[in-house]
Amino acid sequence: MPDIQIDPRGPRFGAAVTLTGAVVALVIGDAWPGVAIMAILAVLYVPGAIRGPQATLQGAFFKAFVRPRLSPPAQTESFRPPRFAQQLGLFFTTAAVACALAGWSLGFLIFVGFLTFASALQAVFGLCLGCEMYLLFRRATARAA
Question: CB under 8 Å, gap of 24 or more: what pairs does 119-122 form?
Fold first, then answer.
């Protein structure tokens, strides 16, 4: 797969969408509306986990409605680190739903809390924890030249 370059503000916009849903789910808890929000977020993560954030509904919305109103990005980035972050988001949302379905309220809150924290860092400060984890893993596994 070619190294697709993306506008780094797109994943940040997607993180704001996730943050909104995660905060609402955190407040509601593991009652059915909170679990439904996490299930919806999980579904929204699937295309991003497979193809990258440019393939998500949030990415399409950003590209169609937000991006045309912004100046060109100062730089672009590879889709690979944000795709890994999408995979982590899919894991956390799925784990939260599984915990709720298993009746483990604390587990639900822990996974939603992790998702809230990570999406807040990305949305507010532009720090993508999943991207940083991806880069650390790549550096750790790179062969010495």
Answer: 119/15, 119/16, 119/18, 119/19, 119/22, 119/89, 120/15, 120/19, 122/11, 122/12, 122/15, 122/85
* Model pTM above 0.90: yes
List the pLDDT tens digit at each of the 145 positions of the chain. 678 999 999 999 999 999 999 999 999 999 999 999 999 999 999 999 999 999 999 999 999 999 999 999 999 999 999 999 999 999 999 999 999 999 999 999 999 999 999 999 999 999 999 999 999 999 998 875 5
- Sequence-distant (6+) residues with CB within 8 A of 72 are none
State the amino acid at position 129 in one-letter form.
Answer: L
Output the CA angle 47-18-90, nearest 5 degrees. 45
